[in-house]
Amino acid sequence: MRTIVGPVRTCVGCRERDARATLTRVIARDGRLHVDADKRAAGRGAWMHARATCFDAFARRGGFVRSLRCVIAKPQRVALRALFSEVQV
């Protein structure tokens, strides 16, 4: 079992617990998705790994409505997923 140092968050895509430093925070503001680079912007947020598979699992389960409590238009979701596929580890 590995030891996690620092604050721990759960990825909303794969449901793995991991260090906050390794996860990306996504927030919904004014009906648009934003990547919170500073990890402390105001607004409802969700933590996930920077992997397209985690993003797809989150979207497939209806996570935008449940976790972020808003409806996100498909073009916004597609644009954000494109960012995640570039950052994929």
In brief, what are we looking at here?
With 89 residues, the protein is α+β, with helices and mostly antiparallel strands. The chain has helices at 52-60, 63-66, 74-87, and strands at 8-10, 17-19, 24-29, 32-36, 45-48.
Characteristic key phrases:
30% helix, 24% strand, three-stranded antiparallel beta sheet
SS strand fraction? 15-25%
Helix content: 25-40%
Uncertain ranges:
none
**Major sheet: size, sense and barrel closure?**
3 strands, antiparallel
**What's the total count of β strands?**
5
Structural class: alpha+beta
What's the number of helices? 3
Give the distance, in angstroms, between the N- and C-terminal Cα atoms.
21 Å
Mind explaining what this structure looks like?
Helices cover 30% and strands 24% of the residues. It has 89 residues and is α+β, with helices and mostly antiparallel strands. It has helices spanning 52-60, 63-66, 74-87; strands at residues 8-10, 17-19, 24-29, 32-36, 45-48. The strands form two sheets. It has a three-stranded antiparallel β-sheet, with helices on one face. The protein has a two-stranded antiparallel sheet with strand order 1-2. The mean pLDDT is 84. Strand 1 (8-10) and strand 2 form a beta hairpin.
